[in-house]
What does this fold into?
Amino acid sequence: DTGVSQNPRHKITKRGQNVTFRCDPISEHNRLYWYRQTLGQGPEFLTYFQNEAQLEKSRLLSDRFSAERPKGSFSTLEIQRTEQGDSAMYLCASSRGLGGEQYFGPGTRLTVT
Amino acid sequence: QQQVKQSPQSLIVQKGGISIINCAYENTAFDYFPWYQQFPGKGPALLIAIRPDVSEKKEGRFTISFNKSAKQFSLHIMDSQPGDSATYFCAASIWTSGSRLTFGEGTQLTVNP
It folds into this structure.
C-alpha cells in the first residue's frame, strides 16, 4: 500500500506563468484534499473532492486556482498567472471518506520568482 | 478567524524529558482532533488522534489529553528523544462530514541530547 504521491516535488516558475501539480492518492481512498502551507504556518485548506465531485472550496482558492479530479483517482491543481504570494508548499491528502483519517503526501514546493 | 490556537510556538526539552504542547479550539462542532508531526521538507504525518468520547488516548510515548468543557487538548511526549525533534501541528475537524482539517500554527520541538 503506497502512500500519497505528489509531482513535481519542486517547481520554480516566473511570475505570470501557469503551473500544474499532480496528486495520486492512496488507492481506494475516495476523498482527496488540497492544502497550502507557508513557512512557519500550519496547512490551510484549499479544496476537496469526493470521487470526481469537488465538494468544497476555500475562500483562499481564487479564480486563478483550479482543481480537478476527472476520474476520481488522481487530481491536478493548476495556478494561472502565478504571483509571488503563491510561493508555498502545496500539500495533498487523501482519506477513505466520511470519518476517515487524512494522510498527506510529501508536497510540492512552489517558488515564484 | 483562527479557530485552533496552539502553544508554545517553540519548545526545547532535554532527552528523556516530557514535551507538552497545548491547543484550544472555538468551534464546538469539532469532534475529531489529530496531531501531525512534520519534518523539514516533508508532508505532515499523522501521529495520534482522539474523539471527544474519551478524555485520554495513549499510543506508545505519545498521549493526547482532551478537555471538552474547556475546549482544549494537549499532546504529551514522554521520554522525549532527539529523533522527536520536528514541528508538531494540532488540528480539528468534524469527523462525520469528513471535510477540512483546521490546523494550529505549529510547535517547533527541539530535543537536546
About this structure: Residues 93 and 104 of chain A are 4 Å apart (CA to CA). Chain A has a mean pLDDT of 94.
